[in-house]
Amino acid sequence: MFSFTGPDMFSRRCVWVNGPVIVGGGPSGLAVAAGLKEQGVPYVIIERSDCIASLWQKRTYDRLKLHLPKKFCQLPRMPFPDHYPEYPSKRQFIEYLESYARHFDINPQFNECVQSAKYDEVCKLWRVNTVCDNGSEVEYICQSLVVATGENAKSVVPEIEGLKDFGGEVIHACDYKSGASYKGKKVLVVGCGNSGMEVSLDLCNHDAKPSMVVRSSVHVLPREIFGISTFQLAMVLMKWLPLWLVDKLMLFMAWMILGNMEKFGLKRPALGPLELKNNQGKTPVLDIGALEKIRSREIQVVPGIKKFSCGSVEFTNGEKLEIDSVVLATGYCSNVPYWLQETEFFTKEGFPKAPFPHGWKGKAGLYAVGFTRRGLAGASADAVKISQDIGKVWKDELKQKKQKVPTHRRCISTF
Ligand SMILES: Cc1cc2nc3c(=O)[nH]c(=O)nc-3n(C[C@H](O)[C@H](O)[C@H](O)COP(=O)(O)OP(=O)(O)OC[C@H]3O[C@@H](n4cnc5c(N)ncnc54)[C@H](O)[C@@H]3O)c2cc1C
Ligand SMILES: NC(=O)c1ccc[n+]([C@@H]2O[C@H](COP(=O)([O-])OP(=O)(O)OC[C@H]3O[C@@H](n4cnc5c(N)ncnc54)[C@H](OP(=O)(O)O)[C@@H]3O)[C@@H](O)[C@H]2O)c1
């Protein structure tokens, strides 16, 4: 890595990276970095936050546990410690990631946010521009770019009529830590995905009074069926049966275990859970206790929101409810369109256009890791392919360089 400093010594630097730049120091970025490290390929990993896995460390609630068994959540080349439970807690997962980073000697450039990245057709190189927390700017120049900023980089905050006039506390689920400070309060949880369900459950467990907005439909499945992880069972069945049949079986088993939830306001979508996940990326909820609270009416299910007014909310069915606080469990989105100046490989929503399993590699050294809507297992699979691909290109170039007299790439940079 070579660094050139412009006339203003501390404000703008240009850095030549001898290898790829990885944007994002979450599980996906770490997994690619580990694969590159093992092959001796140099890289730079840039992270906007001051720690690795900032989603897990800073933007998740305290009671969070992995929803899938640990063997589906470990990163390549390093299993979870044997003493970890089947569903590690958030703290255990973070400790695992920290030891992963230590083991593979991964040291991201922290507090540095990628503002733009563009392929320079003249130089045949990527130009990645960052701004550091201290205000200084860096331009990295590299041959390949690994996008590892995640499917959940930005929280989705919907515009709802009257929300500004509500007057009480309004937070997104990414800022919710625990229900401890909500004791006795009436809280409206907007959204019934995994976050909405778990936040509602946590509020109940802290003696708050949650009402959960279910504006459309949702698939809720038990986390385990007959002692086997539902996810694992679906994976096994999918090896032998068509998707629609696996969906039917999953729904039948869910009905046997959970009963009919429609009478509690939880309608099932027309598409089965796996088909919905495949077609629209919508994750089914894996129940870890919220349903029991919905049955006992400790969590009230309410319909879509019409508008907020001072201290209350009105629903689409005309009913009104007085509330103290709002938690928006309204999901997340990719931030790729905000910084990557590229439209061939990524959609305008910031996901690879090519369907799974082809969305990991674009043209001109562009890669995407962790965008297959397949959680940590999907990110790990991408990371292995990407690091092997970059490793191969790297080794081929080294061989060629050994055979030829070295030529220098021309690279123009403005300071
Ligand atoms: C509440 C919650 C619970 C979840 N639980 C599970 C689970 O149990 N199992 C599972 O498989 N998946 C789960 N997920 C999905 C989750 O996305 C993955 O577990 C995992 O975090 C994905 O890793 P990633 O590295 O792709 O993305 P992230 O973990 O989001 O990491 C991306 C990193 O990129 C950084 N970044 C973003 N933009 C920039 C930029 N412009 N410049 C520099 N850095 C940037 C971010 O700060 C972040 O550190 C959960 C998600 C949420 C929100
Ligand atoms: N322990 C875990 O493993 C765990 C825990 C939490 C989250 N996660 C993962 O994190 C990811 C994000 O989950 P998430 O639950 O935060 O988001 P999500 O799955 O995208 O769910 C968002 C919810 O908000 C609703 N919503 C959005 N805008 C709304 C509006 N204006 N009014 C009413 N409702 C609105 C959606 O309803 P519609 O369906 O009608 O759009 C949906 O119910 C998922 O992959 C999830 O599996 C995992």
Automatic annotation (TrEMBL):
Q: Which GO terms describe its biological process?
A: auxin biosynthetic process
Q: Does the keyword Flavoprotein apply?
A: yes
One Pfam family per UniProt: FMO-like
Reactions catalysed, semicolon-separated, are: indole-3-pyruvate + NADPH + O2 + H(+) = (indol-3-yl)acetate + CO2 + NADP(+) + H2O
Keyword Oxidoreductase among UniProt keywords: yes
Pathway noted in the entry: Plant hormone metabolism; auxin biosynthesis
EC category: oxidoreductase
Cofactor(s) needed, names only, are: FAD
| Family of this protein | Belongs to the FMO family.
- Cite the PANTHER family for this sequence: FLAVIN-BINDING MONOOXYGENASE-LIKE PROTEIN (AFU_ORTHOLOGUE AFUA_4G09220), INDOLE-3-PYRUVATE MONOOXYGENASE YUCCA8-RELATED
The protein's name is: Flavin-containing monooxygenase
